[in-house]
Amino acid sequence: MLDVKFLSVSLVAVTALVLFTGQRREERTQQDIKRILELREARRKSSIMKIHGNTMVESLTVRSRWSVEEAWAWQKKVGWMIGGNFVPSNAVNQIQMFSEEGFDVTLIEKEIKIAAKKGNMNAMRVFLHNLLFEDNKEAYFTRLDKYLEISARHGVKTIFVFFDACWRATAHLGRQPTPIPHTHNSGWVQCPTHAQLLDERSWAGLKDYVTQTIKRFRNDERVVLWDIYNEPSNTAMEFDHIPQKLTVAQGAANLTMITQSKKKAQVLKLLEKAFVWARSGNPTQPITSGMWGAMTPTDNSPFTKLQMEQSDIVSFHNYDPEEQLLKYIQGFSSEQRPLICTEYLARSHGSTVHASLPVFHAKGISAFHWGVIDGATQTSYPWSSWHDEMAAKPDIWHHDVFSPNGDPHDPAEVELMGKLRETPIDWDAVRKGRFN
Protein backbone atom coordinates (compact mmCIF):
# COMPACT_ATOMS: atom_id res chain seq x y z
CA MET A 1 0.00 0.00 0.00
CA LEU A 2 1.34 3.47 -0.98
CA ASP A 3 2.63 5.54 1.91
CA VAL A 4 0.61 8.75 1.54
CA LYS A 5 2.86 10.69 3.94
CA PHE A 6 5.95 9.70 2.01
CA LEU A 7 4.26 10.64 -1.27
CA SER A 8 3.25 14.05 0.04
CA VAL A 9 6.78 14.79 1.21
CA SER A 10 8.19 13.62 -2.13
CA LEU A 11 5.77 15.81 -4.10
CA VAL A 12 6.74 18.79 -2.01
CA ALA A 13 10.40 18.03 -2.58
CA VAL A 14 9.96 17.59 -6.32
CA THR A 15 7.91 20.77 -6.55
CA ALA A 16 10.55 22.66 -4.63
CA LEU A 17 13.25 21.23 -6.89
CA VAL A 18 11.31 22.22 -10.01
CA LEU A 19 10.69 25.69 -8.68
CA PHE A 20 14.32 26.02 -7.64
CA THR A 21 15.51 24.78 -11.01
CA GLY A 22 13.13 27.14 -12.81
CA GLN A 23 14.28 30.01 -10.65
CA ARG A 24 17.91 29.19 -11.37
CA ARG A 25 17.13 28.89 -15.08
CA GLU A 26 15.35 32.25 -15.01
CA GLU A 27 18.28 33.76 -13.11
CA ARG A 28 20.69 32.34 -15.69
CA THR A 29 18.49 33.68 -18.48
CA GLN A 30 18.44 37.10 -16.89
CA GLN A 31 22.21 36.90 -16.41
CA ASP A 32 22.65 35.87 -20.02
CA ILE A 33 20.49 38.76 -21.18
CA LYS A 34 22.44 41.11 -18.95
CA ARG A 35 25.74 39.81 -20.31
CA ILE A 36 24.48 40.18 -23.89
CA LEU A 37 23.40 43.75 -23.22
CA GLU A 38 26.71 44.51 -21.52
CA LEU A 39 28.58 43.01 -24.45
CA ARG A 40 26.55 45.06 -26.91
CA GLU A 41 27.21 48.17 -24.88
CA ALA A 42 30.91 47.38 -24.70
CA ARG A 43 30.99 46.87 -28.44
CA ARG A 44 29.01 50.06 -28.92
CA LYS A 45 31.52 52.00 -26.86
CA SER A 46 34.62 50.38 -28.25
CA SER A 47 36.56 51.34 -31.34
CA ILE A 48 36.84 48.80 -34.11
CA MET A 49 38.38 48.88 -37.56
CA LYS A 50 36.51 48.40 -40.79
CA ILE A 51 37.39 48.41 -44.46
CA HIS A 52 36.21 51.26 -46.71
CA GLY A 53 37.54 50.62 -50.19
CA ASN A 54 41.19 49.78 -49.64
CA THR A 55 41.56 51.92 -46.53
CA MET A 56 41.35 50.94 -42.89
CA VAL A 57 38.97 53.37 -41.22
CA GLU A 58 38.42 53.92 -37.52
CA SER A 59 34.84 53.18 -36.48
CA LEU A 60 33.52 54.60 -33.21
CA THR A 61 30.10 54.71 -31.68
CA VAL A 62 28.23 56.41 -34.47
CA ARG A 63 24.70 57.25 -35.30
CA SER A 64 23.71 56.00 -38.71
CA ARG A 65 23.33 58.22 -41.73
CA TRP A 66 19.97 59.94 -41.71
CA SER A 67 17.23 58.35 -43.74
CA VAL A 68 15.76 60.32 -46.64
CA GLU A 69 12.65 60.98 -44.53
CA GLU A 70 14.72 62.32 -41.63
CA ALA A 71 16.57 64.59 -44.03
CA TRP A 72 13.37 66.06 -45.45
CA ALA A 73 11.86 66.47 -41.98
CA TRP A 74 14.91 68.58 -41.09
CA GLN A 75 14.55 70.59 -44.31
CA LYS A 76 10.91 71.39 -43.60
CA LYS A 77 11.80 72.43 -40.07
CA VAL A 78 14.64 74.82 -40.96
CA GLY A 79 13.04 76.10 -44.17
CA TRP A 80 14.87 77.85 -46.98
CA MET A 81 18.19 79.25 -45.84
CA ILE A 82 19.79 82.23 -47.51
CA GLY A 83 23.11 83.61 -46.35
CA GLY A 84 26.82 83.87 -46.86
CA ASN A 85 30.22 82.56 -45.90
CA PHE A 86 30.93 84.93 -43.05
CA VAL A 87 34.29 86.39 -42.04
CA PRO A 88 34.22 89.73 -40.19
CA SER A 89 35.90 92.53 -42.09
CA ASN A 90 38.85 92.73 -39.68
CA ALA A 91 39.91 89.08 -40.17
CA VAL A 92 42.20 87.87 -42.93
CA ASN A 93 41.36 84.24 -42.17
CA GLN A 94 39.44 81.88 -39.88
CA ILE A 95 42.17 81.86 -37.22
CA GLN A 96 42.10 85.62 -36.81
CA MET A 97 38.31 85.60 -36.62
CA PHE A 98 38.28 83.45 -33.47
CA SER A 99 41.68 84.33 -31.99
CA GLU A 100 42.08 86.20 -28.72
CA GLU A 101 43.52 89.16 -30.63
CA GLY A 102 41.03 89.19 -33.49
CA PHE A 103 37.69 88.20 -31.97
CA ASP A 104 35.81 91.50 -32.08
CA VAL A 105 32.35 91.11 -30.53
CA THR A 106 31.27 94.65 -31.41
CA LEU A 107 32.25 94.27 -35.05
CA ILE A 108 30.64 90.84 -35.40
CA GLU A 109 27.43 92.20 -33.88
CA LYS A 110 27.43 95.10 -36.32
CA GLU A 111 28.11 93.01 -39.41
CA ILE A 112 25.72 90.15 -38.59
CA LYS A 113 23.03 92.77 -38.03
CA ILE A 114 23.77 94.29 -41.46
CA ALA A 115 23.48 90.86 -43.09
CA ALA A 116 20.25 90.01 -41.28
CA LYS A 117 18.42 93.33 -41.43
CA LYS A 118 19.64 94.79 -44.72
CA GLY A 119 20.50 91.55 -46.50
CA ASN A 120 17.54 89.48 -45.34
CA MET A 121 19.92 86.63 -44.48
CA ASN A 122 18.98 83.94 -41.97
CA ALA A 123 22.06 81.69 -41.92
CA MET A 124 25.86 81.86 -42.16
CA ARG A 125 28.58 79.36 -42.99
CA VAL A 126 31.59 79.84 -40.68
CA PHE A 127 35.04 78.23 -40.84
CA LEU A 128 36.83 76.95 -37.73
CA HIS A 129 40.47 75.90 -37.17
CA ASN A 130 41.94 73.13 -35.05
CA LEU A 131 44.93 75.21 -33.88
CA LEU A 132 42.60 77.40 -31.82
CA PHE A 133 41.04 74.35 -30.17
CA GLU A 134 44.41 72.76 -29.45
CA ASP A 135 45.77 75.98 -27.96
CA ASN A 136 42.93 76.68 -25.51
CA LYS A 137 39.73 74.76 -26.06
CA GLU A 138 37.72 76.51 -23.35
CA ALA A 139 38.52 79.93 -24.77
CA TYR A 140 37.71 78.57 -28.21
CA PHE A 141 34.35 77.23 -27.05
CA THR A 142 33.57 80.49 -25.27
CA ARG A 143 34.11 82.45 -28.48
CA LEU A 144 32.04 80.03 -30.54
CA ASP A 145 29.24 80.32 -28.03
CA LYS A 146 29.46 84.11 -28.09
CA TYR A 147 29.34 84.13 -31.89
CA LEU A 148 26.27 81.87 -31.81
CA GLU A 149 24.66 84.12 -29.22
CA ILE A 150 25.14 87.17 -31.44
CA SER A 151 23.91 85.41 -34.57
CA ALA A 152 20.85 83.94 -32.88
CA ARG A 153 19.91 87.37 -31.56
CA HIS A 154 19.51 88.46 -35.18
CA GLY A 155 17.71 85.31 -36.33
CA VAL A 156 20.78 83.82 -38.02
CA LYS A 157 21.64 80.12 -37.79
CA THR A 158 25.14 78.75 -38.36
CA ILE A 159 26.89 76.07 -40.40
CA PHE A 160 30.30 75.29 -38.90
CA VAL A 161 33.10 74.01 -41.18
CA PHE A 162 35.86 71.89 -39.59
CA PHE A 163 38.48 71.32 -42.29
CA ASP A 164 39.54 73.15 -45.45
CA ALA A 165 41.89 72.06 -48.25
CA CYS A 166 42.23 75.52 -49.81
CA TRP A 167 45.03 78.04 -49.97
CA ARG A 168 48.06 78.34 -47.62
CA ALA A 169 49.65 75.06 -46.59
CA THR A 170 51.01 76.48 -43.32
CA ALA A 171 49.27 78.19 -40.43
CA HIS A 172 50.12 79.54 -37.01
CA LEU A 173 48.57 81.25 -34.01
CA GLY A 174 49.28 84.83 -33.05
CA ARG A 175 49.69 87.64 -35.56
CA GLN A 176 48.23 86.64 -38.92
CA PRO A 177 49.56 87.59 -42.37
CA THR A 178 48.99 91.13 -43.53
CA PRO A 179 46.77 91.12 -46.63
CA ILE A 180 48.73 91.50 -49.85
CA PRO A 181 47.31 94.62 -51.50
CA HIS A 182 44.67 94.06 -54.19
CA THR A 183 44.90 90.26 -53.90
CA HIS A 184 42.00 87.85 -53.43
CA ASN A 185 42.02 85.97 -50.07
CA SER A 186 45.79 86.22 -49.68
CA GLY A 187 45.87 85.22 -46.00
CA TRP A 188 43.52 82.22 -45.93
CA VAL A 189 44.95 79.01 -44.45
CA GLN A 190 44.27 75.30 -44.76
CA CYS A 191 43.04 73.19 -41.90
CA PRO A 192 44.88 71.05 -41.04
CA THR A 193 48.26 72.26 -42.23
CA HIS A 194 50.23 70.00 -44.53
CA ALA A 195 52.55 69.12 -41.67
CA GLN A 196 49.61 67.80 -39.65
CA LEU A 197 48.09 66.15 -42.70
CA LEU A 198 51.28 64.13 -43.22
CA ASP A 199 51.85 63.32 -39.54
CA GLU A 200 49.03 60.93 -38.67
CA ARG A 201 50.21 60.85 -35.06
CA SER A 202 48.76 64.38 -34.79
CA TRP A 203 45.33 63.18 -35.89
CA ALA A 204 44.36 62.32 -32.32
CA GLY A 205 44.21 66.06 -31.79
CA LEU A 206 42.08 66.48 -34.92
CA LYS A 207 39.73 63.80 -33.64
CA ASP A 208 39.32 65.64 -30.33
CA TYR A 209 38.74 68.89 -32.21
CA VAL A 210 35.84 67.39 -34.15
CA THR A 211 34.26 65.19 -31.49
CA GLN A 212 34.47 67.65 -28.61
CA THR A 213 33.18 70.56 -30.68
CA ILE A 214 30.19 68.53 -31.83
CA LYS A 215 29.50 67.16 -28.36
CA ARG A 216 29.58 70.70 -27.01
CA PHE A 217 26.93 71.90 -29.48
CA ARG A 218 25.20 68.67 -30.56
CA ASN A 219 21.80 69.80 -29.22
CA ASP A 220 22.23 73.50 -29.95
CA GLU A 221 19.53 74.71 -32.32
CA ARG A 222 21.67 77.70 -33.24
CA VAL A 223 23.90 75.27 -35.17
CA VAL A 224 21.97 74.06 -38.20
CA LEU A 225 24.54 71.86 -39.99
CA TRP A 226 28.08 70.49 -39.64
CA ASP A 227 30.26 70.79 -42.76
CA ILE A 228 33.09 68.28 -42.37
CA TYR A 229 35.58 69.29 -45.07
CA ASN A 230 35.60 72.20 -47.51
CA GLU A 231 36.60 71.19 -51.05
CA PRO A 232 38.65 68.22 -49.85
CA SER A 233 40.02 67.29 -53.28
CA ASN A 234 41.13 70.85 -54.07
CA THR A 235 44.84 71.23 -54.83
CA ALA A 236 44.61 74.10 -57.31
CA MET A 237 45.24 76.81 -54.74
CA GLU A 238 48.74 75.55 -54.08
CA PHE A 239 49.88 74.07 -57.35
CA ASP A 240 48.20 76.04 -60.10
CA HIS A 241 47.58 79.45 -58.59
CA ILE A 242 50.49 80.27 -56.31
CA PRO A 243 51.23 83.87 -57.32
CA GLN A 244 54.79 85.10 -57.52
CA LYS A 245 53.86 88.14 -55.43
CA LEU A 246 52.78 85.84 -52.59
CA THR A 247 56.01 83.85 -52.55
CA VAL A 248 58.05 87.05 -52.60
CA ALA A 249 55.98 88.96 -50.08
CA GLN A 250 55.33 86.17 -47.60
CA GLY A 251 58.21 83.74 -48.06
CA ALA A 252 58.69 80.31 -49.54
CA ALA A 253 57.32 78.64 -46.40
CA ASN A 254 53.85 79.10 -47.82
CA LEU A 255 54.61 76.81 -50.74
CA THR A 256 53.59 73.23 -50.30
CA MET A 257 56.07 70.42 -49.74
CA ILE A 258 53.62 67.67 -50.62
CA THR A 259 52.63 66.27 -54.00
CA GLN A 260 49.10 66.52 -55.31
CA SER A 261 48.60 62.75 -55.23
CA LYS A 262 49.93 62.46 -51.67
CA LYS A 263 47.77 65.32 -50.47
CA LYS A 264 44.64 63.83 -52.00
CA ALA A 265 45.38 60.42 -50.49
CA GLN A 266 45.87 61.90 -47.02
CA VAL A 267 42.83 64.17 -47.24
CA LEU A 268 40.63 61.28 -48.38
CA LYS A 269 41.84 59.22 -45.44
CA LEU A 270 41.19 62.10 -43.04
CA LEU A 271 37.77 62.77 -44.57
CA GLU A 272 36.75 59.15 -43.99
CA LYS A 273 37.79 59.37 -40.37
CA ALA A 274 36.23 62.79 -39.88
CA PHE A 275 32.80 61.54 -40.93
CA VAL A 276 33.10 58.78 -38.32
CA TRP A 277 34.32 61.22 -35.67
CA ALA A 278 31.43 63.58 -36.40
CA ARG A 279 28.82 60.84 -36.12
CA SER A 280 30.38 59.60 -32.88
CA GLY A 281 29.35 62.90 -31.31
CA ASN A 282 25.75 61.88 -32.09
CA PRO A 283 24.73 65.33 -33.36
CA THR A 284 21.07 66.18 -33.68
CA GLN A 285 22.06 68.30 -36.70
CA PRO A 286 22.93 66.79 -40.10
CA ILE A 287 26.48 66.46 -41.42
CA THR A 288 27.75 67.05 -44.94
CA SER A 289 30.80 67.70 -47.12
CA GLY A 290 30.24 69.55 -50.36
CA MET A 291 31.22 68.66 -53.89
CA TRP A 292 32.82 71.41 -55.92
CA GLY A 293 34.22 72.29 -59.33
CA ALA A 294 33.80 69.55 -61.90
CA MET A 295 32.60 67.00 -59.33
CA THR A 296 29.20 65.49 -60.14
CA PRO A 297 27.17 62.78 -58.40
CA THR A 298 28.10 60.32 -61.17
CA ASP A 299 31.80 61.00 -61.64
CA ASN A 300 32.77 57.92 -59.55
CA SER A 301 35.74 59.62 -57.92
CA PRO A 302 36.57 58.35 -54.41
CA PHE A 303 35.81 61.78 -52.97
CA THR A 304 32.41 62.01 -54.65
CA LYS A 305 31.52 58.47 -53.63
CA LEU A 306 32.42 59.10 -50.00
CA GLN A 307 30.71 62.49 -49.79
CA MET A 308 27.52 61.24 -51.43
CA GLU A 309 27.39 58.11 -49.27
CA GLN A 310 28.11 59.81 -45.95
CA SER A 311 26.35 63.19 -46.13
CA ASP A 312 22.96 63.43 -44.42
CA ILE A 313 22.20 66.47 -46.59
CA VAL A 314 23.91 66.73 -49.99
CA SER A 315 25.83 69.97 -50.51
CA PHE A 316 27.81 71.46 -53.37
CA HIS A 317 29.56 74.58 -54.65
CA ASN A 318 28.74 76.20 -57.98
CA TYR A 319 30.17 79.37 -59.51
CA ASP A 320 28.68 78.88 -62.98
CA PRO A 321 26.29 81.06 -65.01
CA GLU A 322 22.59 80.17 -64.91
CA GLU A 323 22.48 77.70 -67.82
CA GLN A 324 25.40 75.67 -66.52
CA LEU A 325 24.03 75.84 -62.98
CA LEU A 326 20.74 74.31 -64.13
CA LYS A 327 22.59 71.49 -65.89
CA TYR A 328 24.68 70.89 -62.78
CA ILE A 329 21.61 70.67 -60.53
CA GLN A 330 20.00 68.28 -63.01
CA GLY A 331 22.92 65.93 -62.40
CA PHE A 332 21.47 65.27 -58.93
CA SER A 333 18.23 63.92 -60.41
CA SER A 334 18.82 60.47 -58.88
CA GLU A 335 19.52 61.98 -55.46
CA GLN A 336 16.50 61.92 -53.14
CA ARG A 337 17.90 64.10 -50.36
CA PRO A 338 17.64 67.86 -49.85
CA LEU A 339 20.34 69.92 -51.58
CA ILE A 340 22.29 72.92 -50.30
CA CYS A 341 24.65 75.15 -52.26
CA THR A 342 27.20 76.25 -49.66
CA GLU A 343 29.15 78.46 -52.10
CA TYR A 344 28.12 80.53 -55.11
CA LEU A 345 28.48 84.14 -56.38
CA ALA A 346 31.42 85.00 -58.63
CA ARG A 347 30.11 87.98 -60.54
CA SER A 348 33.08 88.17 -62.89
CA HIS A 349 32.41 84.55 -63.90
CA GLY A 350 28.69 84.95 -64.47
CA SER A 351 27.54 83.55 -61.12
CA THR A 352 25.31 86.33 -59.82
CA VAL A 353 22.57 86.83 -57.29
CA HIS A 354 20.06 87.71 -60.01
CA ALA A 355 20.90 84.66 -62.15
CA SER A 356 21.48 82.00 -59.48
CA LEU A 357 19.30 82.79 -56.48
CA PRO A 358 15.91 82.46 -58.23
CA VAL A 359 17.05 79.04 -59.50
CA PHE A 360 17.99 77.94 -56.00
CA HIS A 361 14.69 79.16 -54.59
CA ALA A 362 12.64 77.47 -57.31
CA LYS A 363 14.46 74.18 -56.69
CA GLY A 364 14.24 74.48 -52.90
CA ILE A 365 18.03 74.67 -52.53
CA SER A 366 19.34 76.77 -49.66
CA ALA A 367 22.12 79.05 -50.92
CA PHE A 368 25.21 80.67 -49.40
CA HIS A 369 27.19 83.21 -51.39
CA TRP A 370 30.89 83.63 -50.71
CA GLY A 371 31.61 86.71 -48.67
CA VAL A 372 29.30 89.01 -46.74
CA ILE A 373 31.25 92.13 -45.79
CA ASP A 374 34.14 93.39 -47.94
CA GLY A 375 37.22 93.40 -45.72
CA ALA A 376 40.64 91.93 -45.04
CA THR A 377 40.01 88.80 -47.11
CA GLN A 378 39.70 91.11 -50.14
CA THR A 379 37.42 88.65 -51.94
CA SER A 380 35.82 91.53 -53.82
CA TYR A 381 38.91 91.13 -56.02
CA PRO A 382 38.75 88.35 -58.64
CA TRP A 383 40.63 85.05 -58.53
CA SER A 384 42.81 86.39 -61.34
CA SER A 385 44.36 88.86 -58.86
CA TRP A 386 46.56 85.97 -57.69
CA HIS A 387 48.45 86.45 -60.95
CA ASP A 388 47.49 89.83 -62.34
CA GLU A 389 48.57 93.12 -60.85
CA MET A 390 45.61 95.28 -59.84
CA ALA A 391 45.77 98.85 -58.59
CA ALA A 392 42.18 99.29 -57.42
CA LYS A 393 39.07 97.39 -56.49
CA PRO A 394 37.05 96.32 -59.54
CA ASP A 395 33.84 98.17 -60.34
CA ILE A 396 31.98 94.84 -60.25
CA TRP A 397 32.99 92.91 -57.17
CA HIS A 398 33.85 89.24 -57.48
CA HIS A 399 32.38 88.18 -54.10
CA ASP A 400 30.88 90.01 -51.09
CA VAL A 401 27.61 91.89 -50.72
CA PHE A 402 28.17 94.84 -48.35
CA SER A 403 30.78 97.48 -47.66
CA PRO A 404 31.89 97.74 -44.02
CA ASN A 405 29.64 100.78 -43.59
CA GLY A 406 26.61 98.66 -44.51
CA ASP A 407 26.05 99.93 -48.03
CA PRO A 408 25.18 97.12 -50.45
CA HIS A 409 27.38 96.66 -53.50
CA ASP A 410 24.17 96.30 -55.51
CA PRO A 411 20.93 97.35 -53.79
CA ALA A 412 18.90 95.29 -56.27
CA GLU A 413 20.62 92.12 -55.00
CA VAL A 414 19.50 92.54 -51.39
CA GLU A 415 16.03 93.54 -52.59
CA LEU A 416 15.79 90.24 -54.47
CA MET A 417 17.07 88.33 -51.44
CA GLY A 418 14.28 89.77 -49.34
CA LYS A 419 11.61 89.10 -51.95
CA LEU A 420 12.63 85.45 -52.36
CA ARG A 421 12.95 84.87 -48.63
CA GLU A 422 9.39 86.08 -48.14
CA THR A 423 8.11 83.76 -50.86
CA PRO A 424 7.00 80.44 -49.26
CA ILE A 425 8.19 77.11 -50.58
CA ASP A 426 5.99 74.01 -50.88
CA TRP A 427 8.54 71.42 -49.79
CA ASP A 428 6.42 68.43 -50.82
CA ALA A 429 6.09 69.88 -54.32
CA VAL A 430 9.82 70.63 -54.42
CA ARG A 431 10.65 67.09 -53.41
CA LYS A 432 8.46 65.64 -56.15
CA GLY A 433 9.23 68.01 -58.97
CA ARG A 434 12.52 69.83 -58.48
CA PHE A 435 14.14 68.17 -61.51
CA ASN A 436 11.22 68.71 -63.89
Quick rundown:
Helix content is 44%, strand content 12%.
Describe this structure in words.
The protein has 436 residues and is α/β, with parallel strands linked by helices. The strands form 2 sheets. The protein has an 8-stranded parallel β-sheet. Strands 1-2 form a two-stranded antiparallel sheet. Helix 4 (105-118) packs parallel to helix 6 (137-153), helix 8 runs parallel beside helix 11 (260-280) and helix 14 (353-362) packs parallel to helix 15 (411-422). The chain has helices at 4-45, 68-78, 94-98, 105-118, 130-135, 137-153, 194-198, 203-217, 236-239, 244-250, 260-280, 302-310, 322-330, 353-362, 411-422, 427-433; strands at 48-52, 55-59, 82-85, 123-127, 157-164, 223-230, 287-288, 314-317, 339-344, 366-370. The chain is built from 16 helices and 10 strands. It is 44% helix and 12% strand. The longest helix is centred in the N-terminal third of the chain and has 42 residues, at 4-45.
